[in-house]
What does this fold into?
Amino acid sequence: MSRALPKYNKRRVAVVGGAAAVVLSGALIAGSALAGTPAKSDGATQARTLASPGTITCPDVASQLPAVPATAKAEVDRNLALLQTQIQEANKRLQTTVGQGGPNFVNNAILGPLKDKRVSTIDRIAIAIGRTSAKPTGLDSLAACTLNASGANTGAGAASGSTATRQSGTGATGGKNTGGGGSTGAGRNTGAGTITCPDVASKLPAVPATAKAEVDRNLALLQTQIREANKRLQTTVGQGGPNFVNNAILGPLKDKRVSTIDRIAIAIGRTSAKPTGLDSLAACTLTK
It folds into this structure.
């Protein structure tokens, strides 16, 4: 025969039940709050993922070449591989510079230097073929690449015909990035200073008569490149982020000089010993 519980036991059960209800209710609220948190995080992650700066694509060179002589195949293949490496490096740089730049940052700091490198590499391919066969012409038209923008880059994103502008993303402020210096004192363009480059003519060996015209033409081109770089230094006053002058002026100038100096060495090497080590003269500095 069961006995009725004492009154205090009933009260204890009621209190315990109430506490259980409160704990359960609290758990449900906490669970609901926690369940909502990942959704916000997922949304933020998705937004960051969508903010892609795009992809750089370039015309295919291999398919536009004539028959490659066996004697040139190794050099041509090496330079074709280098063209692919250059594209990969440019795409990586596109990702790592999100948020930097002023007007035409992508053109100045990425697409421009990439085109200069490709001109030099394509020229070496044509020269290699031309040593034992007809030298192909018109390949330089394949040097310019384009930015296939996917929403993160403000403005039209192509090198040919349109302009790829400032990279948008976290940290971008207005039309240009504010920031300080880079290597050799070249940071944001304040307009002060002059670009100077090592003299190439004085470092050359005796130039064969058969190469003189081509060497002189390229020496003159080196001077033109310096003048153009100094003019650009003046016209981009107030632009830039960290290392703007390095990225948009000194870097492209070095690439152009490497190509031009290489042509000088090749011209001499056709009928004499090809000079080496001239690439060390390619880099220029900003003198404040």
Notes: The two ends are 105 Å apart (CA to CA). The chain has two domains: 54-177, 186-288. Residues 8-50, 151-165, 168-186 have pLDDT under 50 and may be disordered. Residues 54-177 form one domain.
